Amino acid sequence: MGNIIGGFVVLLFCFIFWIQRNYTSDYGGLFPDVVMAVLALLSVMLIARGVLWRHESGWDNTGRLGYRDLGRALLLLIAWVISLPVLGYLIGGILFFTLVAVMMRTERPSLKNLALDLGVAIAVVGAFYLAFTQVLYVSLPELSL
What we know:
Layout lengths: L1 H18 L10 H23 L14 H38 L6 H25 L10
Helix pairs in contact: 1-2, 3-4
């Protein structure tokens, strides 16, 4: 059931973004259009998998996050978006990425796990920051003091 709901949510977001697109140059929307088309295709595949593959086995209940955990992750995502003007992309992204990673762990986090989550957050958020600011020349929110 989660695959079907998730697929429809992503498909809905793709539709919303698709009808609101407005590009200022001929090729300026090529990359976003391809990303939206791929996301829409993957969401349709996810819906089909949810409809066609109804096999329930014992492994589904191990290591899987429930809807409550996904709701908390969604609330953290919303809090991150709200905090962007204050914390900026880099600091806020690292903070919230780490919080979501720690929250999604099924076991109690150790100091080693926290360091690993923080290191992954710095690497991933830093890579996206550099890709957007240095390659794509997109300005991202900065820390406001």
